[in-house]
Amino acid sequence: MVSVKIIKLGGSVITRKEEYRRARPDLISQLCSRFKDRRDIVLVHGAGSFGHILALRNGLETPGRINGKQEAVARVTYDVSYLNNIVIKTLIKSGIPAVGIPPHSIYPDEIRDFSTVKHYLESGIVPVLYGDVIVENRQFRIISGDQIILDLSRVFGPDEVAFLSDVDGLYTADPKLDPRARLIRRIRSNELNIEGKGSDATGSMAGKIRNIREIMKYTKRVVIINGNYPERLESFLKGKRFIGTVIT
């Protein structure tokens, strides 16, 4: 098995989440350039405003029967694929051979085959997956980037997993609401006990933390970095000190 790092570019970082289909091309470019000469990574990106807004507007956040939802499912699938193309185009422009792998093609329960990801990794090509909509047995459901990372971790046992979010890391309270909130620089996974409420189509902060605790069963450490500062990503990739949270 190849040695690998799994890195998520959060939807709140690469898009403006309150504006439908609004990417942040300059920041995407700065982040992508940090991956130059790296062939040991799998990238996963969130859907951001290319997925959540329309999904919530059409009631796709809860799995259900496809009847009456076909047009909405098709549109969201198109939109998140479009965002993936933006990321892929930017990576290639930065000199990084990358290929988008649509999760809807590998995620029906009877398939769920990550061999394509493995083949690209072994060939020196960076695979890029993303939050998507899955359809099977006349049912639809959203598959989040976080869930994809958990499943990739089970398969590849990555050395590290990094989440690029719109905050510096985990805090003692919500830093957007409480000015007294302190950044937690290092914490053990069994100490994670964070509750929160969210309004996106893939779940709350509490759900994300539960996902991280599961991921920790398959990797040595998870880090959370503010993706609005690409130099922090660069420091992480080079093994230098960075501002963020390290979970062991």
Structural features, described:
By secondary structure, the chain is α/β, with parallel strands linked by helices. The protein has one domain (5-247): Carbamate kinase (3-Layer(aba) Sandwich). Helix content is 33%, strand content 19%. It is built from eight helices and eleven strands. The strands form two sheets. Strands 4-5-2-1-8-10-11-9 form an eight-stranded mixed sheet, sandwiched between helices.
Compose a concise summary of this entry.
The protein is built from eight helices and eleven strands.
Number of helices: 8
CATH class wording: Alpha Beta
| Binned strand content | 15-25%
* Category by helix and strand content: alpha/beta
Number of strands: 11
Question: If strands are numbered along the chain, what order do they take across the biggest sheet?
Answer: 4-5-2-1-8-10-11-9
Topology:
Layout: E1 5-9, H1 11-14, H2 25-33, E2 41-45, H3 52-57, E3 64-65, H4 70-93, E4 98-100, H5 115-122, E5 126-130, E6 132-136, E7 139-143, H6 145-156, E8 160-165, E9 186-187, H7 205-215, E10 221-226, H8 230-237, E11 245-247
Parallel strand pairs: 1-2, 1-8, 2-5, 4-5, 8-10, 9-11
Antiparallel strand pairs: 3-7, 6-7, 10-11
